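Honest question from a wet-lab person: if I give you the sequences of every part of a complex, can you actually get the arrangement of the whole thing, not just the pieces? Trying it with mine:
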Amino acid sequence: MVVRYKPTTICFWPIIVKMTSSTNHSAVKASSRTKMELKGIDKYFSVDRKAITVLRGIDLSVREGEFISLIGPSGCGKSTLLNIIAGLDEPTKGDISNDGQRSDRRLGAIGYMHQKDLLLPWRTVLDNAVLGLELRGKPRSQIRRQALELMESFGLKGFEKNYPSLLSGGMRQRVAFLRTVLADHDVILLDEPFGALDALTRANMQEWLIELWESWGKTVIMVTHDVEEAVLLSDRVYVFTSRPGSVKLVLPVDLPRPRRYEMVTEDAFVKMKAAVIAALRGNDVMGGIA
Amino acid sequence: MREDPIAIYSEAEETSQSSTFWILLRAYISAMLQWALPVALILAVLGIWEVSVRLFNVARWLLPPPSSIGAELLESKSLLLRHTLVTLEEVLLGFALALVVGIALAAAIAYSKLVERAAYPFIIASQTVPVIVIAPLLLIWIGYGIWPKIIVVVLISFFPIVINTVDGLKSADPDMLNMMRTLGANKWQIFTKVQVPSSIPFLFSGIRVAITLSVIGAVIGEWVGASAGLGYLMTRSAPQFLTDRVFASIFILSVIGITLFVLVVLIEHYAMPWYQWEKRDKALKRN
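Yes, you can. This is the full assembly:
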């Protein structure tokens, strides 16, 4: 009897997978060059003829190859901010520059991974993964080869021809990751990429993302609700106030890389976590008084 | 190569060979029961019909028993076959045309708000005017021949195709459309790569309704004016009290309808393997 799908490979995807170029991952560091800069971003929505301020005076910058997290209470406009950065929405006020130039055409130039995997159910894993390259009219055989090379490091080997509905939540999310990675944008936005996963899968995926990113050198902006996740993964953490969202605290995380999940119990980590939580909760108290 | 999704879930429970045998046997019996029950029901209805017609001495011309309908099917098989082929041709041509017209209209409606506002009143009006009124007009305008029947079939069966396909084209997850935009897709790529595929299950629902309506459309078309076809045969046979022939025609029409319906379901199954997995996945999660 051929045991093709062991339950264990579905639920606990091994953490030990190394990226192909992970030998020098500690050497990858954010350069000092500013990749993207947001200045004085305001966003109003009009609901029933009343203007609701969602974002107020957001200043945010990210260096090339840097990993930053945006954390804040629900409804603080983090996702709106990601939509604006991705080019799906425009700010009411403020400027966005990319590589030092005003950036009006961001749509299609910045990678964006949603909380939902948004895989196309009628496409196999492989065909989902190559979507971004396919849209740019690259030859089919070439993009397929490119995707197949990465299948193993994404834990998807052997599942290339399956439809997404056969995969577990963690695997589906990795296909979405692969799709985002293959689209090959310099800046990648992650909107609560692990929000829909269970705690165990989530921890594995976090560690996997650390390795992926450290070998990869892309600029990442991640929105999350999870303080631990923000501190563990990021170079800097932006803490947002509740609506209207504005930047409350920017915390540099100078923990050594490569990061390991075990670090969450270390003193330096706990202190930083406490600082973020204090900023978040102070926020709540203020809200209660107002 | 597709793997059975059940395998993923059942792999956890290692089953010994003897219990596998019993599981298979149980599955086999329940599959047999699924078919046996409807068949038994049909046989029971036919049996009650046969017995009560004979018991109460109902006249043949009023309500023939199933046995004499069966006899009529055998006796006049060449006559029935000739008329069946005429009707079948009208059904298939009309349905094919309805499919083309329906999909084209739906695509135009989904693609442009202006077309939607302009076309919808006409589409709905075409359904509120009874076909039985339009059919004689078609006869005056176009005359006898196959075309008035085909037009009646199209008028009746394009509607569910249009309505369902429009809903399907609009059913795509807005987040999915945004995802496509962030990957740099243009409007046409979003249409062909997301909206069209997500409309296919809806299209098939429309087709299943339309294919049965096509049979009705062909018969109505023949009723109004024709020289051949099962509808024509029925209008000729009823005044002569050839009631068993009328019933034989009804029987053949039902067989045509059911066969075409099953054919559509089969095509649906093989055209969208992903949809079957998705349905099965949802069913598994519900349990």
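Two things worth pointing out. The two ends of chain B are 27 Å apart (CA to CA). DSSP finds twelve helices and no strands in chain B.
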